[in-house]
Amino acid sequence: MTDILRVDMLTRHFGGLAAVSNVGLRLAEGELVGLIGPNGAGKTTVFNLLTGVYPPSAGTITFSRDGRELALGGRKPDVVCRAGIGRTFQNIRLFKDLTVLENVEIALQQNHRYSLAASFFRLPPFARTEALVREESMELLALMGLAKVAGEQARNLPYGDQRHLEIARALATRPTLLLLDEPAAGMNPAETAELTGLIARLRTEFGLTILLIEHDMSLVMKICERIYVLDHGVVIASGSPGEVRANPRVIEAYLGEEV
Amino acid sequence: MEQLAQQLINGLSLGSIYALIALGYTMVYGIIQLINFAHGEVYMVGAYVGYACMTFARLGFFESLLIAMVVCGALGVVIERVAYKPLRDSTRIAALITAIGVSLLLQYTMMAFVGADVRTYPALPDYLTASFHIGGVVISAQSLLIIGTSVLLMIALQFIVHRTRLGKAMRAVSMDADAARLMGINVDNTISFTFMLGSALAGAAGVLVGVYYNSINPLMGVLPGLKAFVAAVFGGIGIIPGALIGGYFIGAAETLVSGYFSSLYKDAVVFAILILVLIFRPAGLLGKNVREKV
Amino acid sequence: MANPMVRTLLTRGVPLLLLYAVVLAGLNLGLIDDYLMATIATLCINIVLAVSLNLITGFTGQFSLGHAGFMAIGAYTTGLITIAVPTVPGFIAGLLAGGLLAALVGFLIGLPTLRLRGDYLAIATLGLAEIIRILLNNVEFTNGAAGLAGIPQMMDWNWFFILTVGSVLLIRNFLRSSHGRNAIAVREDEIAAESIGVDATRAKVLSFTVGAFFGGLAGGMYASYFYFIKPDTFGFLKSIDILVIVVLGGLGSLSGSVIAAVLLAAISTVLQQFTAVRMILYALLLVIIMVFRPQGLMGSREVSLRIVGRLFTRKPTEPDEPEATR
Known about the structure:
heterotrimer; A: six-stranded mixed sheet; four-stranded antiparallel sheet; 25% strand; globular; C: mainly alpha; ABC transporter involved in vitamin B12 uptake, BtuC
């Protein structure tokens, strides 16, 4: 199996502080990998570097799609997204004033373009593409159990649905690699269990590779095939859930926190 | 060479005035992130108060300056309490439009009271109209007065901001208003105090510009207000020394363009500088780029 | 009524055509004098200006304080071209050239400055508009500060109707397309928009350029109707006037902009009698509205002509399709 993502020596400084240093990651196609670590370990910074929100201070990010390798370090977030990496945010960032449907449509329409003239004058490509985008968006919403609330403003959704909508929106970009930033944050155990099943299902259904940050160990240990542990911006351990759980360095990093 | 020196002396006087106005912009922006468009009008009011003191009450320059500063300081607090405070939690665009509304209100209210005509500032006493020749360069007592007064005020401001409790509170609020509140700082009063300081400086600038240009009118605040804002942006908005550097730079640029090129284009050059600064160094000369936290 | 196109045409077209006919009849019967027609002309121009600025500021979230600069470019281009070619084709070419030149300037200035955060952009656009005004004041071919006179008056009610309705319709279509949704996504959350593949810079520059085009078009309408233009007409205060309409109507509401333009035209006609205090009242109104209703009259909601249109099409209409623009 080939690596879909190769990260080498990834480093990012903020002022004098190294938030992430010399991080290396490997993700094989179809894998479901966890990225864990105590608060402030630099997990979200890794995501932000992978998706181009910050340019890395050093290191390389190589993403492969359809047998072609792309160097993504320092590329803009929209370029990274169109290359095939989708993501969600720890602090949900939906378009709150737009409808649920519009949130997904905006993501989906990036793959279905028409000219400026078509939009000004409502030429045939406009109607054709709009119908297609709407139809595909509704399908995706149905899959995520959000079809009923398609016309609601995103801000009015319950918390759990907002998390689902973020995933739906990320899927709408047709990614091959999905980065989930604490998808279970704020959920109760029942919701987390449901989400765990959903993530596993989405992976097979969309043929995804998934990298997820999560504090909820029940979720991580249950579905992740491999885990990277980050502490103070450095990878301190990696391996199967069992290996990581037994690693003394991990236990030390988490001392005082629940493992 | 002499001409250059002469232009720079003129630029220094004009720059002092811009710097005084820019300080108010910068302090207010630093503390509530609002471009206080009405600031130029506070300066205009200062010029009229000074005019009234000198012409009708026959007060001297320094008494008039002091009264103008007190009146403008109070005006600044009133504007902040009445117009800006209710909008502190709404969008920045709403606050900005309000500032523009206040600015128009002051302009046209003043116009209704004193008419749209230009007024001539009263002559200064003899000892302030003298001039000195150094080589071929003429230095008037008037420009020394402007520069001297400005520098004194700036030193006083520096003292207040760095050595007093209120100054400390100002700096704390501008860094993090919520944290400052939790530390027991009265944020509302601190903001009002900032407006008072900034507006008092603008009032002083108004009197000085009356002395410098000799004429005042109700719309005089618009352009210098904008230019002082450019000065603040140039130095890095929110940063007090930046406003000084920006003020002197804009003053010098303006007099040099007038002297060597054409005074018709001096304003265009100032705005071109603004756009270039914004494009190439949006945080200003002394500012740091900050990125939004994700 | 099976064909939705026909229904749309009826529900929206009928009230508009009625409005067109009423004004036309008023003009022919002499009920609308020159003064009233000038008010209508100003209103139409303000609608185009406000709707185009709303596209930039309300829908894309890019705060511009220099819309009068684009208006100036359009006005002078149309004016100079129609003076050189005083025919209808010359006039149309002038309008288009004015819009396109404004769009070009908008594109060139937008490309570097749209990276700036909110109020910095406002100041940059303000600076640009001032530079344009100062240049127009000082170059020879525009006749400097004295202004450009003798522009052939080509604009009449027919043209105002076509251009105003056309502009609003085109901007609405733009906003309800994927291009417009990209812009709205950038306004809502730029980082999230980029994370789902929206090229934020492109979306912002596109809105800015389209807005500049219609700003220029409005300038051309102004030049051709009032046949005399001078640089100071397009100063800072004009930019503020336009912004006030947009904010009063509601950022992100096209119908709000139209309603606010009508309302302000009415208010300014009434205030005309009180010359001395007119501007004071105007400024006071501005502050009061902002303090008590900072989201404007409409917020970001829309009212549709369909509501009026239903009065004309007897058949009860089925529930509205979800309004796409917000």
